[in-house]
Design a protein that fits this description.
The complex is a heterodimer. By secondary structure, chain A is of the alpha+beta class. Chain A is 55% helix and 18% strand. Chain A has 13 helices and twelve strands. In chain A, strands 2-1-5-4-3 form a five-stranded antiparallel β-sheet, sandwiched between helices. In chain A, strands 7-9-10-12-11 form a five-stranded mixed β-sheet, covered by helices on one side. Chain A has a two-stranded antiparallel ribbon with strand order 6-8. Helix content of chain B is 86%, strand content 0%. The termini of chain B are far apart. The chains are: A alpha+beta, B mainly alpha.
Chain lengths: 473, 222
């Protein structure tokens, strides 16, 4: 079919000819020569002698050789052209092959090759594009994704997975999961899924340098099109916050009912005893009624605290607290005065260090309440004859009020939850020491209502430091 | 043959790292348990030690199998020898973590809080970092990282000495707290030993990479 198009442009000298055509020409020339020689010989133009015959033969052979050589050269060039074109096929930066082949068949090969190259390149572009899309999807996911092969080596890991596990980058090559994720629970799941081929879901605690994260891990076996196992896929979901909220809520409900229930049970019990006859014995009756009075006071304390908390929350949200400029020192002094009685009972000294000229713009009543809560907290957890230090300083438009005690200190596990309502570090002990369990929650909300915050540092056995950060204006 | 050997060595490495993950976690939980006086964590660590022991035996058996079947030379041989030694060290760290968990249980029984918490916390951070770094050196085949571990050991040693000083002061001022002081001292000492073992692991890594035995030759550092 290509031949036809070649024939159409017969007169074009540059037009390539087919190999058959060329051989035909060659043969024609050879036959013509031979015929000429034979003709000369038969007509007697050239008397036959051994010499002339040999010369004629040589001439024929020589011209045949010459023509074949020429032909071989063009063929060689054409084949070089083919090999260059094929090389272009796989190279990423194809160069234009300018030269045109001289043999018809090569032209055909090349043109087919050209069409196929275009097709292949198109497919390749599609594949690369798809892979990029997949990569982009994988990378933009909030969930961590890890794929492993059947020998527990990591095939793919997205950046969310790296971030969740606190890793900076993936080692080169195909690292095993043991190299990258040093968590025995996770390694166990990986082993299990490669053995059982059943998907697994579990919550695993991962430790990064300082923090711990709880990740929900969904593991599914990977199969190829023949249904053979070829590894596993893990999807990680960060549920740390969710867990924290869950435990906060359930603890809150449990604690609040406990805190309210204790005084009510006690009141109910003593009232029943009184009704059952104890009321007739004046000494007992008096003691019981005193207890009932004390418990109802406690109940009303808790309710007062809860109310002030909700007021603070509302006020803080709507920015409704009234502020006035006041000397920091005045607030600290009135707070220490309120705690003086308690301190004297335990023989604890309260030391104040504060620049007398320092002032801030706050709701003095609330800040005083916050300080009283912090100080009485410190007093509760300090041994007798200890001391409490209160200091105030101005750091970049921010007043820092520090209340430091040298008492029992708080273990690291409790620190993040310390400011939750009704959160108790040591349940038995705190209730013995009294308090509503709301003191620190109130302090936190007072700080927030002032657009400030509170933090705590503590070491077990050495004491705790609470710092109230309040904006000066 | 070499393909088999390579696969076996990869498997061995995975198993050793699985062991190290267990040990790292044990150490972490043991100290957390101590600082929080948490009986549950202590029990967990003690329970986990069986698994560590089992894995140690498995790693050792793997090493022996490779030595017998493949008769490795040069790099591979050094790797196997280093794994044999690291395996031992890791198991010992597991034991020391268990010791700390035992101290926690005594503390729970006494119903007391731990002493020198700050010091012990710092030592733990140091020891854990060293262990992590030595394992990282093994994974990344990084000699410099391994050398860094040896330097960090001094810090933990200093902290341990500091605990002793604090302990002496405490006994003088408050003789009634003797029990707590002794428990805290024991924990501090165990941590110091753990840091030493982490150094050993780092030295094994250096041996594995360079073929040079750097143990007992601390002047090389300078």
């Amino acid at each position: 079919m290509f031949r036809k198009s070649g024939l159409e442009k017969e007169e074009d000298t540059l037009q390539p000819r087919g190999i058959q055509q060329k051989i035909l020409i060659l043969q024609t020339i050879t036959i013509a020569f031979t015929a000429c020689a034979l003709f000369a010989f038969t007509t007697g133009l050239a008397p036959l002698s051994a010499k002339t015959a040999t010369i004629a033969l040589f001439v024929i052979i020589a011209q045949a050789l010459l023509l074949t050589m020429l032909q071989a050269r063009t063929l060689k060039k054409d084949f070089e052209l083919i090999s260059r074109t094929i090389k272009n096929l796989t190279s990423t930066s194809p160069q234009d092959v300018e030269a045109t082949p001289k043999t018809q068949e090569v032209v055909e090969v090349l043109s087919t090759l050209d069409i196929e190259t275009q097709k292949a390149r198109h497919q390749m572009e599609n594949i690369v594009g798809q892979k990029r899309e997949l990569d982009a999807v994988l990378e933009s996911m909030a969930e961590g994704v890890i794929a492993i092969d059947s020998r527990e080596r990591i095939l793919n890991m997205n950046s969310a997975a790296l971030a969740l596990l606190g890793l900076s980058d993936l080692p080169a090559g195909k690292p095993s999961i043991q190299e990258v994720i040093r968590n025995s629970e996770f390694q166990k799941i990986a082993r299990q899924i490669l053995l059982s081929h059943h998907s697994i879901q579990d919550d695993i605690v991962f430790y990064t340098d300082q923090t711990e994260v709880i990740l929900q891990v969904n593991a599914v076996p990977l199969q190829n099109s023949e249904g053979e196992s070829m590894g596993a896929l893990f999807v990680f979901h960060d549920i740390t916050k969710l867990r924290k909220l869950e435990s906060m809520r359930s603890d809150f409900v449990a604690n609040v009912s406990h805190e309210l229930k204790t005084p009510i049970t006690s009141i109910k019990g003593f009232v029943e005893t009184l009704l059952d006859g104890a009321i007739d014995s004046p000494a007992d009756a008096r003691r019981f009624i005193e207890i009932v009075g004390k418990q109802s006071e406690r109940l009303s304390d808790i309710i007062d605290d809860l109310l002030s908390l909700s007021r603070l929350e509302q006020g803080g949200d709507e920015d409704q607290i009234s502020r006035e400029p006041i000397l920091v020192r005045t607030v600290i002094e009135s707070a220490t005065l309120a705690c003086q009685h308690e301190a004297r009972e335990k023989n604890i000294s309260i030391e104040v260090s504060c620049d007398p000229s320092l002032s801030f713009n706050v709701n003095s009543h609330l800040v005083e309440q916050a300080l009283v809560n912090l100080i009485s907290n410190g007093l509760k957890y300090s041994d007798d004859r200890n001391r409490i230090e209160i200091s105030a300083e101005l750091v970049q438009d921010e007043i820092r009020l520090r209340v430091q005690d040298f008492g029992s200190g708080i273990s690291k596990v409790h620190l993040p939850r310390l400011f939750e309502r009704f959160y108790r570090v040591d349940k038995a002990r705190s209730r013995k020491l009294g308090g509503t369990g709301l003191g620190l929650a109130i302090v936190k909300h007072i700080a927030q209502a002032h657009k400030g915050y509170i933090n705590v540092e503590s070491t077990v056995g050495e004491g705790s430091t609470f710092t109230l950060h309040l904006p000066q204006r | 043959m070499t393909i088999h050997l390579d696969a076996e060595i990869d498997k061995l490495k995975q198993r050793l790292l699985a062991l190290s993950a267990l040990v790292e976690e044990s150490l972490h939980k043991a100290v957390d348990g101590y600082l929080e006086t948490n009986q549950a964590l202590a029990d967990y660590v003690i329970d986990r030690d069986n698994e560590i022991d089992r894995l140690e035996v498995e790693v050792e058996e793997d090493c022996l199998k490779i030595l017998a079947l493949h008769q490795p030379v040069a790099n591979d041989l050094r790797f196997i020898v280093a794994v044999l030694k690291m395996n031992n060290d890791l198991e010992r760290i597991g034991d020391l973590a268990t010791n700390i968990a035992q101290r926690t249980k005594s503390l729970v029984k006494l119903d007391e809080s731990p002493l020198f918490a700050k010091n012990i916390e710092q030592m733990t951070t140091g020891a854990r970092k060293m262990l992590k770094q030595s394992l990282e050196a093994l994974i990344k085949v990084d000699e410099e990282l391994a050398k860094g571990v040896r330097e960090a050991d001094n810090e933990v040693d200093d902290l341990n000495r500091n605990t002793y000083r604090l302990a002496m002061e405490k006994i003088e001022t408050e003789p009634t707290s003797l029990n707590r002081v002794l428990l805290s001292l024991s924990v501090s000492r165990n941590l110091e030993r753990i840091a030493d073992l982490a150094t050993n692991i780092a030295e094994d890594v250096i041996y594995m990479i360079s073929g040079e035995i750097v143990r007992h030759r601390h002047h090389i550092l300078e």
